[in-house]
Amino acid sequence: MKIGMRANRPFIITAENQGQPVLNAQTILEALYMAPDQRQLGPVETFKLEDLAAPVTQPQQIFAVGMNYRDHSEEIHITLPKVPSIFTKFSSSLAPANVAVTAHGPKTDWETELVVMIGRGGREIPVADAMSHVAGVMVGEDLSDRDVQFENDNPQFSMGKSFENYAPIGPWLTTVDELANLDDEVITTTVNGQTMQQAPLRQLIFKVPDLVHYLSTVCDLQPGDLIFTGTPSGTGVGRDPQVFLKSGDQLTGHITHLGTLNITIK
Predict the structure, then answer these.
(1) CA dihedral over 194, 196, 200, 201, signed as positive or negative
(2) Closest Cα partner for 255 from 164, 177, 167, 183?
(3) Vertex 212, ends 128 and 149: CA angle to 5°?
(4) List of the chain residues with pLDDT < 70
(5) How far apart are CA 207 and CA 134, in angstroms?
(6) Sheet of 250-255: strands edge to edge?
């Protein structure tokens, strides 16, 4: 199932530009975990991508994983992690998939990522059971002000990645049963039509079940929590010479079968 938020209601995507609102649910998770015969669906409606809001706007927790692709760790000269390297983004940075973003500084960078939404929470979730706790997946952009991130000798991740609209997500949530193999999905980032990042999800060092398990050994995972799973090589800070986003740039983040983020930099 692909399900988004439109006009303050969960909206089941039935075709490329068509869907049906769920009339008796207020959130995606509420609609998702209803029995099909309990969902009250409205008539089929035509929609535009810009009509869709972020699938979730106030998760209790947003986790993000640094250095989760070997090539990206190498391009920013950071030692590969022994366990998942976790930081946080703040919910005030969340934005819909089609959004204009004001760059905070001259070194604003892109990081397209797979984002996981937790459906059933818990602690000490075994790796073997982890995917049953996942409501679905979506595309996310972990926009980053590199000046803020690297201002100290020891990088400070969360603050440089939590400015207004620095976490576009969407355009909808896709349940994993829709995907033949999550590892085969490919992340692609373009800036003004030029491909900057492209890598399959099989390159993740710590896979989704590993991340869900690891986080749950520390935190009580909650329904609606988000996990930004990391980005592949090709970021602006890792290039020689470095390249950063500027006013007027058109940034897209895409994952095969999950949709596209369309971001205008102001």
Answers:
(1) negative
(2) 183
(3) 150
(4) none
(5) 13
(6) 98-101, 259-265, 250-255, 186-191, 194-200
